[in-house]
Amino acid sequence: MLGLSAGSRLGLIDFVPSEYRLSRPLVVRMMGAALVVAGAFVLLVGIGVALLRWPAGVLSATVLTATFVVLVMSFLLSRRPTMVRLDQTGYVVRWVRGVGVARGRWQDVEDAAATTVAGDRCVVLRRRDGRTTTIPVAVIDVPADRFVQDLQQHLNRGQGYRPLG
Hints:
This protein is α+β, with helices and mostly antiparallel strands. The protein has two domains: 6-21 and 82-158, Pleckstrin-homology domain (PH domain)/Phosphotyrosine-binding domain (PTB) (PH-domain like, Roll); 26-78. The chain has helices spanning 24-52, 56-78, 144-158, and strands spanning 18-21, 82-86, 90-93, 103-105, 109-117, 120-127, 132-136. Helix 1 (24-52) runs antiparallel to helix 2. The longest helix is centred in the first third of the chain and has 29 residues, at 24-52.
């Protein structure tokens, strides 16, 4: 019985925290961007060594540093960091530009709406204070419908709503 306790027989579901990671395609794009930036940096330093007669050790140090940074970033991204965490009290959203309010309590959320922002499907949590939290569902590594259903369950539970029956 996943996520259910004895209380579930009475129509009450105990929700366990949900964590949603970055999608694999997004991680690959981020890694590709890191490789391009590192390569461009090494190229610029190489040009500086060739044209400005910088010491050759500068290029060696740059290549080693860029390699180290790319390896560390590869390790961190291969673990696919958590993008959204939902628990009994609220939510936390990370790694998203323009998210708005990145952390909040369910009691502060007025409602949730599915919308499109800049061509991407998103869920917008509208807060009672007028601010919002925008979560793009395409960058989460689960189907959008599954994420939205879980989000609705957490929001309903956090608002104190109970299932009928």
